[in-house]
Amino acid sequence: MDNTGSTTDEGDDGGEDVRSGRDETTEERADRRWTELLQELRVAQTGVQILFGFLLAVVFQPRFTTLSETDRGIYVVTVLLGSATAAALIGPVSYHRLLTGRHLKPETVVWASRLTLFGLVLLFCTMCSALLLIMRVALHNTLALWLVGGMALWSFVCWFVFPAWALVRSSSSSPGADSDRGK
């Protein structure tokens, strides 16, 4: 608690404390943030698992042998990105399981949140790479690059720009208010 009787909410970057607007202990806040993070991970993990499963099956399709060397290279990169994405988005579960009972939940939530954000960046790259492969095979022309570029830009805006914009707007409109970042 700070000297006004309110709890403080430490940012995930270890920076200065800001008021949380919630009456919860550090452990309660960690429990809440962990629950929220798990809900977010369920959404991301499901998509990654489906995408990765389809990617693994591609190599066993008869048409795979007709792909150009470039397309095979894109495929290999996409599968590796998918694997790295799955690892990053499953990692927080392992992190939590290995540290359970060691009184490290606030730190666990911080690191799991960072790993999740990294997993989302990898998912962005995986999706762009998979889309590039599909568009190259389907269109056989440079329109594929333009379409992938447009979708990559749209995904980037939805996933990263809009949240950053909301964060900037909220911090400039209400100084000292907690954005509850890094759940």
Overview features:
2 strands, two-stranded antiparallel sheet, 183 residues, mainly alpha, disordered N terminus, single chain, 4 helices
What is the topological layout?
Elements lengths: L7 E3 L6 E3 L6 H33 L10 H31 L5 H35 L3 H31 L10
Antiparallel strand pairs: 1-2
Helix pairs in contact: 1-2, 1-3, 2-3, 3-4
Structural overview:
The chain has helices at residues 26-58, 69-99, 105-139, 143-173; strands spanning 8-10, 17-19. By secondary structure, it is mainly alpha-helical. The protein has a domain at 25-124. A two-stranded antiparallel ribbon has the order 1-2. It is flat, with a radius of gyration of 20 Å. 18% of the residues are buried. The model is unreliable at 1-18 (pLDDT under 50).
What's a quick, concise take on this entry?
71% of the residues lie in helices and 3% in strands.
> Radius of gyration from the CA trace?
20 Å
What is the number of strand segments?
2
N-to-C series of helices and strands:
EEHHHH
Indicate the percent of residues in helices: over 70%
Could you tell me the mean pLDDT? 84
Distance between the termini: 19 Å
Molecular shape? flat
Spatial order of the strands forming the largest sheet: 1-2
Task: List the total number of helices.
Answer: 4
Q: Biggest β-sheet, characterized?
A: 2 strands, antiparallel
| DSSP strand content | under 5%
What is the SS-derived class? Answer: mainly alpha
Sequence stretches where pLDDT stays below 50 over 5 or more residues: 1-18
